[in-house]
Amino acid sequence: MNKNSDAIDDAFAADLLRGHTDTIVLGVLQRGDAYGFEIYKGIRDATGGAYEIKEATLYASYRRLTRDGHAEAYWGDESQGGRRKYYRITDAGRAAFRQNVAAWVATRTIIDSLLGTADATAKGSAR
């Protein structure tokens, strides 16, 4: 692949993922309470550095999730440096996460069928 097609692939993947930022954050919070930068690192590390969400995008997601009752914010203690705002997933957030993952799986199945990639996906998940 040439450099231009790599940039197009990266932009396309980022566009696909952008609409799922809240679900991605809820997925991190499923593992336990976390503060903003810790969530960022969890996402980056889970993808081996291949995907990083911009800080402004993440903080917009935190605001949406707390406004919608999918996450709660609280201040941690200052024993490890500066005071950090932590986020925890709520029961409503867990329900939204499950619903969003189910919708993603259904969408992926349809797209795989339309693109003829269903067999490749099934083989990849069987590993």
UniProtKB/TrEMBL annotation:
UniProt domain Transcription regulator PadR N-terminal: residue ranges: 25-98
InterPro entries: Metal_resp_DNA-bind_regulator, Tscrpt_reg_PadR_N, WH-like_DNA-bd_sf, WH_DNA-bd_sf
Name assigned to this protein: PadR family transcriptional regulator
Organism of provenance: Agromyces seonyuensis
Taxonomic lineage of the native organism: Bacteria, Bacillati, Actinomycetota, Actinomycetes, Micrococcales
